[in-house]
Design brief:
about 325 residues; mainly alpha; two-stranded antiparallel ribbon; globular; binds zinc ion
Length: about 325
């Protein structure tokens, strides 16, 4: 990689995108794995410039990198390399006068400080991020992704950053403001979770999964339904994005009973008869659309689903069978 400031060539590991995205924390902190892989900063070993992409720099970066304050951060002070990098990034984004980036760099600095048990310093950066967020009127559309399930997410993130910065009154005011916008059912549920956390003066990091009450999970495990697991294992590329979503969707409890964690009409329709109904639908659709390649391999004797499309042995009964078609 060529440094945009000093043209020094340095080698850096490529940044990978994680295959499956885990829910973030409510303050926007991505999962550990994503943070390490996707949001990693690189430092130029020659001039000390740091960015996700060293080959790009704002015109103001040169002066920052050569400033006393920036260079002081390169020395000791008991800070880890990662912390120094993120604090330098804060200086660079401030000089570039990019408010959005200034918020992001402060949040990242806070997460890295927190990972090193520097809670007080982390809170300082959370509070600064909150100030910047409050100084920016929320964009009309509110969302970075436009996903109907996360309508109101950015407002929710502000609430959480304020809560974590120990600014509880302002956090509650933001809850009310976010509610004025129509939010998704998921975000509404998470706002209620925030209210409860604020009421008990909780400043700990809290995750989306915890807020929804659906317990921890890492990555996309196999679907629980055996037919869904089989279809996912062997015919994954033939599934639509909405079908994959439905496959892994979980439910959370509400006063009115369990509710699928989505507002997507298409996904809800796929799950109208639960995961088993989804499995039946997918079997019908795949067999109808790909009769030559899709095999739902069932025991001819007892009808149990075999382990693989090529298996010739039943896992439910002692029956074995020979190839029936070429
Ligand atoms: Zn450089
Ligand atoms: Zn059998």
């Amino acid at each position: 990689m060529t440094c945009a400031l000093c043209a020094n060539e340095s080698k850096h590991w490529p940044t990978h995108h994680p295959a499956d995205i885990e829910f973030p924390d409510l303050d926007g902190r991505p999962s550990q794995r994503e943070l390490l892989l996707h949001h990693r900063l690189h430092s130029c070993p020659s001039c000390g410039y740091c960015a996700q992409d060293l080959s790009v720099a704002h015109p103001s970066a040169d002066a920052v990198v050569h400033s006393e304050a920036y260079r002081v951060l390169t020395g000791g002070l008991g800070r880890t390399f990662a912390v120094r990098q993120y604090l330098r990034r804060v200086m660079l984004t401030d000089a570039a006068e990019d408010r959005e980036e200034a918020v992001v760099s402060r949040l990242r600095a806070a997460w890295v400080l927190e990972a090193g048990d520097k809670t007080k310093a982390a809170r300082h950066y959370l509070s600064e991020a909150a100030d910047l967020m409050l100084a920016t009127p929320p964009p009309a559309h509110w969302e970075p992704s436009g996903d109907v399930d996360w309508k109101g997410w950015r407002g929710l993130q502000r609430v959480d950053v304020l809560r974590r910065a120990n600014r509880h009154d302002e956090a509650l005011r933001e809850v009310a403001r976010v509610r004025e916008v129509r939010t998704s059912a998921l975000v509404e549920r998470l706002l209620s979770f925030e209210e409860a956390a604020i009421a008990r003066e909780d400043t700990e990091p809290r995750g989306v999964r915890e807020g929804l009450g659906i317990g921890p999970r890492l990555g996309n495990k196999e679907p629980r339904d055996p037919l869904l697991a089989y279809l996912f294992a062997y015919y994954r590329p033939r599934l639509t994005q909405m079908e994959r979503r439905a496959l892994f969707l979980e439910a959370y409890d509400t006063d009115a009973g369990p509710r699928w964690a989505t507002d997507h009409p298409q996904v809800l329709a796929l799950l109208a008869e639960g995961k088993e109904g989804l499995a039946r639908h997918l079997e019908r659709r795949l067999l109808a659309e790909h009769p030559d390649t899709v095999v739902i391999n069932r025991c001819p004797k007892c009808g149990a689903l075999a382990r693989t499309p090529n298996a010739r042995q039943c896992r439910a009964c002692p029956h074995t069978w020979r190839e029936t078609s070429p």
